[in-house]
Structures are given as structure tokens and as C-alpha cells.
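Readers of this paper often ask what the protein records in our data store actually look like. The remainder of this section carries one protein's record, kept here as part of the documentation.

:::
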Amino acid sequence: MHSTISHMMEVVAKGDDSKIAALLAEDVQFMPPTYWKTWTGRAPVAAVLGHVGQVFSDFSYRRVMGDGNDWAVEFQCKIGEFDAVGVDLITLNDDGLIQLFEVTMRPYKSVGALREAMNARVMTDARFLKFREALS
């Protein structure tokens, strides 16, 4: 397994965006499961993923599939009272940093709970006033 993927598996669930940022390319793109927009840039994506680590509970990885620069990492967690299963689809750049990070999740109610929880957190995080330009 690529060292960036194993390191990501250690730090994302902890919600420490400073450790997450070190794994991301400067122009990383993050596609969340909660809406059809993309976050672009190391600082905004690290902040979003840091909040996700705080929203998820009972988080664990189940399977890792991939080779070279393309990886799929399956996880399970709880969001409030709801169980969820998801997959992180990750593409690394030539420097071994995360260039593209797309998340798919199910079931629908869990994704809705994630969206509500993330919106509540983002609304109270002053950094996101600046990060609005990173969302397209």
C-alpha cells in the first residue's frame, strides 16, 4: 500500500486538519457525498476533512483496493444515530500527495445527517468565510 494512503487512514478519522494538510497537494480537489460541488485547495479541503473526522464516530476502514496512484478505501462509521458505509476514491499525484479525493456514501439518511452536521460545523468556523471561493 502507498505510504500516503496508510498515513491518511491514520489521521483522517482523528480530525486533525494540520496532519491531513500534509498529505494533500496544493491544488487538491475534494468531492463530498453531500452535494454536487467541489472543494479545491489544501487549506479548505483539510478543514473540511478535519470536521468530518469530528462528525464521524465508530469510524473504521474495512478494505483497501488499489495500486500506483489510484486507490479505493472502504469505511464504516456512525453519524449521530445512523450507520453509514462509504468509499474514498483517491488519486495521488506524481509526488505521492492526494490530488483528487471523492467520497461516496450510503444510505441516504446517513448522507443527510452528515450534511446537516457539516453545515452546522462550517457555519461556526470562521475560516469558511474565506474558503467560500474554494467551492465550485
Q: What stands out?
A: The mean pLDDT is 90.
